[in-house]
Structures are given as structure tokens and as C-alpha cells.
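Check these lines:
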Amino acid sequence: MLFTRADHERLAAILIEAARREVSPRFRNLAAGDVRQKKSAIDVVTDADEAAERFICAELAKAFPGALVIGEEAMAADPGLLAALPEADLAFVVDPVDGTLNFASDLPLFAVMGAALIRGEVVAAAIHDPNVGDTAMALRGEGAWLAADAGGHADLAVAAPAPLEDCTGMVSWKYFDEPHRARIPSAFPRFADVSSLRCCGQEYRLAAAGHLHFLMYGRLNPWDHAPGSLLYAEAGGHARLLDGSPYRAGAVSRGLLCAPDGDSWRAIRAAFFGADEGGLA
């Protein structure tokens, strides 16, 4: 099965329309009952997430009949959906509002994103920023670019390799198991800067545009990392699971690391974990 550039543009158009209809009108316009906790006070869902996911899933089903469509909120209700992802001839994973806590906190740092997969391999990605009005896009084998809603595009390229002390990155350390969860922040002073935006989509956009040297994540929900890992790789970067294997949606692993090249990847991994291979496979 071939996922064409026209298919890719259709995916992006659906995400953009969902943002216009369901997400942007609700930003800074949520009532108290429109925000609900899932597992904790920092894990929330809003009416915007649910409405945007319904719209995106319905439109994808019409545009690509027979495709498997998995949204973040549907997965929360039925985790078994994930098992079908590696074998589906065509599948989509969707995050209707990535960075929901930022969205619910009135912080304009969120994204609407999705990826297309063929038998578990990510072949296309789109990460839309409703506030800026552009979409970071990648098509396997054809590179990564930033497409403005008003027209025009610019190619994306990751940062050049740099010594560790000059590197900047984003690390989501809280989802790693112990003892790594406690140890990872102790390595932060080895780098120029390490932070987090609480939004994978925006972090991947920054890294793919060369504004960060590395990204590291401990929880690998496919709707978070299928779009971003392809975007980063097609922008010229090295995206691998921490055991060194390529990323595949639905992979069970301790984490994902993105860096400008293989040497940088190994150096950054060693800075956080040393020679310890335990618990990373």
C-alpha cells in the first residue's frame, strides 16, 4: 500500500479543520465542567479533546474507508485497540489536543497531530499549531517541512552535532521507572539546558527545526511519538528506542531518544545512563 502526498495533505487538512472547528473556539473559553481529571491532576481531558477526536476520526473514516483509526481518548476507554496497530494495512493515530494541560491552563502551547502507519511503520506525520497557523509535516523518504496555512513552506533540518556542554534538550523524565527516574535529572548539569514544554508535538517541532539538540521520553504512547519520531528522522535526525532499535508504534520499551546523529545519540545516552544497560531494553 502506498500513502501518497495527496493522502498526506488530506490528513493535514482534517487536523487543521478540527483545530478550527473544535479546538481554537474552546481555548481560554472552558467552563469548570469542561475539564476533567483522568489519572491525576496533571492528566486531564477537555471537551475540546473529545470533540476534536470525534471529528478527526469521522473524517478519516470517510476519507480512508477501512483504515484503523485510534485516538488518544478512545484508547483510554479501550486499551485493546492498540493490539491491532502493528498488523493494520493502514492505520492512523491521532492526538486531538497534545499538551492538554497547557490548553486547560490557558497556555497557547499545544498541538493537533496525527500519523499514518502501514503495518506498524509510520509513513506520514502532521503536527499542527493552531495558534501560529502552520503544520510540521513529514512523509517517509521525502523529508520534513513546515507548511503555513496561508501558503508556502520551508524545509526542516535538525541541529548540527555539538559537545554535550553546548547541547540543549527536552526530557520527560517522570515516566521512567526507578532507579532511572531519580537519576536522570542529576545529569542535566552536563548540558547547556534541559527543560520540558509539556507538549510532545511542540518539542518535536522545535527539534526538527534545529532549535534543540535532543529529546528523550519515557512513555511511548503512539499518538505522541509516531508523528514526532518520523518528523525528526525525516529532518535528518537519529531517533531510536533506548535499546538502540528503530521506533515502531506500539513498541514496548523504556524510552526513546532523538539526537542529531548516531555518535551524538550514544554520547547523550551514556551521559544519562552510563554503561548501565539494565532496564532499558
User: Anything to note?
Assistant: The two ends are 31 Å apart (CA to CA). Residues 5-23 form the longest helix (19 residues). The chain has two domains: 5-155, 164-273. The chain has eight helices and 14 strands.
